Amino acid sequence: MTGIDWGALDELAERIAREITAKWQIVELDDVKQEIMLHAVREQHIISQYQGNEDVLRKIFWNAGRRYAAKERAYLDLMDDQYHYTPDEVRGVMRSFVYTDAEVSEQIGKKDDLTRCVITDNILSARMDAEKAIKRLSRDYQEVVMRLFVYGLSPVNDNDRKRGYRAIDALTAEMNRNIRTGR
Fold it and tell me: Which three-class secondary structure state does DSSP give residue 111?
């Protein structure tokens, strides 16, 4: 515990919190700063090693603040009382990309051969949301979604399958975020 200059860390935490709140408007400066300082207290054995290295401390504080902001955004996405896609729905939407928009629109109102569900016009808006959201994923996630869920290829191994499901989870979160923010 000796050797940590909490005053300097507090100033750095406030600067980082200002940067984060400028990028993530859903969080407040005091909350982000408090989370950063809480992280510093919990990890003081690591913080004390890098006391003189502001670049490393900046990265540590930035990650702690960004993690908090992401958690708050996910909570807001869940609680904002708007429609949310589920990962199952997103997988179904991605499987529909093997068909053109015209082919899909011809099927509206008919029963799906596979699931026996009536195809509604919601599939078109879901496809538009997915097209917009997939561009915001990493290239790796885009590739695995296209390979596994659009083209229907088998995963190479268990890790590839898990990566595909993580990519769908990320796409689902991005689609739900697009609904809320309109971006």
Answer: strand
Kindly report the CA angle at 170 between 73 and 33, in degrees rounded to 5?
Answer: 30
Cα 23 from Cα 100, distance rounded (Å):
37
144-to-63, 149, 155, 160, 164 alpha-carbon distances in Å:
26, 8, 9, 8, 6
Domain boundaries, given as residue ranges, for the chain: 6-80, 87-179
- Please state, in angstroms and as integers, the Cα–Cα distance from residue 82 to each residue in 78, 133, 167, following that order: 8, 17, 22
pTM strictly above 0.85: no
How far apart, in whole angstroms, are the C-alpha atoms of residue 147 and residue 150? 6
Structural contact between residues 12 and 57, judged by C-beta atoms closer than 8 angstroms: yes
pLDDT (tens digit, 9 = 90+) per residue, 66-105? 999 988 887 876 676 566 788 888 888 898 887 777 776 6
Angle at 163 between CA 172 and CA 142, to 5 degrees: 60
